[in-house]
Specification:
alpha/beta; five-stranded parallel β-sheet; 36% helix; globular
Length: 400
């Protein structure tokens, strides 16, 4: 065997997000060496609750297929059991539970090198070079890869380097928080006996939804609140919203209840909340800025998850779409591996032509389905905010 024939393809995955970790695990499973980068130095706990739709669970199971690893299969089963089963499929679980599960799987994989604290500066993808090069703002390190995957979220630096439009604001401000309803003196102990979503409020451009994780996580209620009020973007605290101050609501009892719940969720009481502006990648305009029918990747560089198609959160499709991205990306390279004599450097990345072709095919194939789900989530979110009937788990979700 020659030196070139023994070459192992390297993928550089930028962003240790849910999308990035799932891609790293899948590409390592295909047989690649993976450099998984994250600008964060530590894994601070963030996020409140996350829905994973049936298609997302299916994709995750394919990425972590433990058919030859009973221990991995057992870990996947325990992870799935840690969530709250939804009536029509899928699970609801704390965001950090899914993040920590994927991070643990990354740590167990000898083909993945995790590099925290690296802030990406640029990507040099010269087609005449054997590999693309990634440089950093805060480190002299230069990493080379046969494939570069941008999984660095809605405000993606990789997206910026590719010259693609930035995410756009939706006009909605959101807060997410948690409280322990089982602690002494809580006003909301009764919510623990009221099912999966014990408190839902729709009122004048405000949508509040709670999630009951008791008994999986004793006493835990997670919640999200979204507002389309123009003043919301300037409100750090949800109780600064006009609806909580001016007494104009027609449902004063519900608003009073929300005020008390948010107060009990405050950081001083051991809970948490965070204000952020919801932003999306506007796929309605994708044909104006994409090249070759994909969503904007070039050469040996592609983007996945929120970096490619951030959508509005309505029914657990954000992470689910990212996991589908990772599955199809890995299927493409696995198929190429099976149809060639092996993923060696000579055959697979000369002038980056083959890699580029695979990545553009991946984006084209994904785009049509993602556009359907993107539009569906937009409509569902608008319905939630306006009080219209909510429709979830459509056939488009299940067909993948």
């Amino acid at each position: 065997m020659t030196e070139n024939e023994d070459h192992q393809l390297t993928a550089v995955v930028i962003g240790a997000s849910l999308a990035g970790m799932s891609a790293a695990l899948g590409l390592a499973k295909v047989g690649m060496k993976v450099e998984l980068l994250d600008k964060k130095k530590d894994r601070s706990r963030q996020g409140a609750v996350l829905g994973l739709a049936p298609n997302g669970l299916k994709a995750l199971e394919e990425l972590l297929d433990g058919s030859n690893d009973d221990e991995q299969s057992d870990r996947l089963r325990k992870f799935r059991d840690s969530g709250i089963p939804m009536p029509e499929g899928g699970v609801m679980l704390p965001w950090a539970v899914l993040r920590d599960f994927l991070f643990d799987e990354v740590g167990r994989n000898d083909n993945i090198s995790y590099r925290p604290g690296l802030v990406m500066l640029d990507i040099d993808d010269d087609p005449s070079s054997p590999s693309a090069k990634v440089t950093f703002l805060n480190n002299d390190l230069v990493l080379e890869g046969d494939i570069i995957v941008g999984a660095d979220g809605v405000n993606s630096r990789v997206r910026q380097v590719l010259g693609l439009p930035a995410a756009s604001q939706t006009g909605t401000t959101s807060w997410r928080g948690v409280l322990d309803a089982s602690k002494a003196g809580s006003e909301f102990l009764y919510l623990l006996d009221r099912g999966i979503a014990p408190l839902v409020v729709r009122e004048d451009g405000l949508f509040f939804l709670s999630f009951n994780f008791h008994d999986k996580i004793p006493g835990k209620i997670a919640w999200s609140l979204s507002s389309t009020a123009p003043q919301a973007k300037d409100c750090e605290h949800p109780l600064d919203l006009p609806i909580f101050k001016d007494g104009s609501s027609s449902n004063k009892d519900a608003i009073k209840q929300l005020r008390a719940l948010i107060d009990e969720s405050s950081p001083s009481q051991g809970g948490a909340y965070k204000s952020f502006q919801l932003a999306v990648i506007d796929l309605k305009l994708v044909d104006e800025w994409s090249n070759g029918g994909g969503w904007g990747g070039k050469g040996r560089v592609t983007i996945i998850g929120d970096a490619a198609h951030a959508l509005r959160p309505a029914s657990g499709q954000g992470a689910s779409m990212a996991f589908e991205d990772s599955v199809l990306l890995c299927r493409k390279f696995s198929s190429e591996k099976a149809s060639s004599s092996g993923l060696n450097h000579n055959e697979f990345s000369m002038t980056c032509k083959n890699v580029s072709t695979i990545l553009r095919d991946f984006e084209k194939e994904r785009l049509e389905r993602v556009k359907i789900i993107w539009e569906e989530e937009w409509v569902l979110t608008e319905n939630n905010l306006s009080g219209k009937e909510r429709r979830i788990w459509t056939d488009e979700y299940r067909e993948w």
